[in-house]
Amino acid sequence: MSAITLTLNEELVTARQGQTILEVAREHSIHIPTLCYLEGLEEMGGCRLCMVEVQGSARPVPACITKAQEGMVVATDSETITEYRRMIVELLLAERNHTCAVCVQNGSCELQTLAARLGVDHVRFDYLHQQLSMDASRERFALDHNRCVLCLRCVRTCDAVEGAHTWDVRGRGVTSRIVADLDRPWGESVSCTDCGKCVQLCPTGALFRKGATVGEMVKEREFLMRLLERRRAIQGRQS
Amino acid sequence: MSEHHEHTVLADDPRLKLVDRAMKRLQYQPDALIEVLHTAQESFGFLSRELLAHVAACLKLPESQVFGVATFYHFFTLRPKGEHSCIVCTGTACYVKGSGEIVHRLEKELQVRAGQTTADGKLSLGTARCLGNCSLAPMLTIDDQVFGPETPIGAETKVRQLLEGSDDKS
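ok -> C-alpha cells follow
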C-alpha cells in the first residue's frame, strides 16, 4: 500500500492509500465527533457529524466516507463546522423525545455525550413532540422509537454481522422508522435470532435490555471487532 | 384506523400468476425487486403483507428490506384503494386559488387524511401536484370526472352525493 501525505489541522501527516480522513485523524489522535459511524460496520455518512473542511471544496465533506488524498488540506474543526455540528445535534434532539432524565441510557448515551461535548445547552428549534410507539414485545429486549436517531447501526450489524437482516427502515424523511421484518412487532419476528448485537451497538437508549431502569443500560461494544477478527481468521483457514 | 384486507388465500389467487410470471422472467434476481413490486401492485391494486412476504421469499430478500422499498416510494400503496377516489389538485395555480382549503374541508368533514382511505373503504382522498387543468383552478377529480373551479363546500357536497349514491345502490 502506497503512502500519501496530507495536511491535517496544519500538520503534515502520512497515511495509507485508501484510508478515510476519519481513520487518519483517529490514528493521529485527532478527535472528530461521529454518531452513525462505528468501526467494523460499513460507513454510510448519514449523520453528518464528522463533517470537515477540505481546502478547495466549496462545502464540508463527511470524514467517515471521504478518502484521504495526496496533498489534501483538511481542517477538522472551525467555528462554522462546530456550528453545523451543534445544529445537527439540536435537530436530532428536536425530532424525537430524548428525555435523558427517564432514559435507560442516561450517563452512557452517545447522543448525550455529543451534545455535552459540543456545548448544546439549548435547542433553538421547536420540538416536534412526536407521539411514537414503543415495542416491548420481544422477550429480552425492547425498542423505543422516541429515542432512535436512525443511525442504522442496528440495521447494518443485523445484515452484515449477524446475517439475519431483521431490521430495516420504513418510509422516508421524518416518517422513517426502524422496522422488524414486514413491520411486525419485534416479538413476532421470525428472522431475529435474539443475538442482541443491535442492542449493544445502539448509540442511544432506543434499543435496550428489558428490565433496565434509568441509567442502568451499559453497552458493551468490544465484541464487534473481536467477532470480525475471529471471522477473518476462520476465513483465512478455509482459503 | 381499521384496515380492509381482502381475505383471500394468496396461493389460490389467479392474480398471483402474473406476479410469479414476472419474477420468473426476471430470473428471481433480487435487484429486480422494484419491477416485481410494480407488477404486483398492477395486479392486486395494492401490496398486502402476504404478497410482500411472498415476493421476499421468492427473491430471497429479507422481509424488512422489501418492506422498506415498498414504503419508501410513494407510488406503492399498502392499503387497498377506496371504492371511489377524489383527487384535489394542489399545483401552484390551484393552490393559489384555494385548493388547500378544499383539502382541509374534505379531510375534516369526511374524516380522512389526504393520501388515505376512509375507514369504511368508500373513498380515497388524494392530492396531486398539477393535473394540467390550471384554467379550471381550483380543480379536482371525482373518480374520472373533472370539476372546477370548485369551492370547499361544493367539493364536499359533490363527494357526499357520490357516496350516498353508492350507498343506495348497495
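DSSP finds six helices and ten strands in chain A.
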